[in-house]
Amino acid sequence: MLQKFSYNDLSLIHKITHHTSPINLPSFIHLYINDNTAMSSRLKSSKDHLTLVSDSKVLHVIDCFKYNFFNRTLITWNTLPLTIREITKHGTFLVNLKTHKYGHHMLPI
C-alpha cells in the first residue's frame, strides 16, 4: 500500500515540477539552483537542476508536518535517477517509474 502512495505522490510531483498540473510548488519548496554558497562540494555534487529543496526549517522540527505531501514526496523525488526525473511526457515517466521501482531495466524514452 505504501508503494501505491509513493507512486501516486511521485506522479503528482512530476506534474507539478513539469508544470502540467494546476498545482504549484509552495513558496518554501523550489528547484535547486547552484549559487556557489558555502555548501560542501559533496552536497553540491549530489544535487542537480531537478532536485527539490525546502527553505523551511519548521517542517523538519514539528512532527505534524512529517507526513505533509510536499515534505514526504520531496525526499522520494530526489532519490529518483535524474534520467527519470527529466522525462517530460507524463505517461513515459510513469512507465519508467514503475520499471525503476520494480527493478527491471528502464524502457527506452
Measured by DSSP, the beta-strand proportion falls in 5-15%
Termini separation: 28 Å
Q: What is the general shape?
A: globular
Secondary-structure element pattern, one letter each = HEHEHHHH
Placed side by side, the strands forming the largest sheet appear as 1-2
Number of strands: 2
- Overall mean pLDDT stands at 78
Overall structural class, as computed from helix and strand content, comes to: mainly alpha
Helix % is: 40-55%
The rounded Rg comes to 15 Å
Poorly predicted segments: 38-45
Number of helices, where a helix is a run of at least 4 consecutive DSSP H or I residues: 6
Sheet of most strands:
2 strands, antiparallel
Any overview of this molecule?
The chain is mainly alpha-helical and 109 residues long. Helix content is 48%, strand content 6%. The protein has 6 helices and 2 strands. The chain has a two-stranded antiparallel ribbon with strand order 1-2. Helix 1 packs across helix 4 (69-79) and helix 1 packs antiparallel against helix 6. The chain is globular.
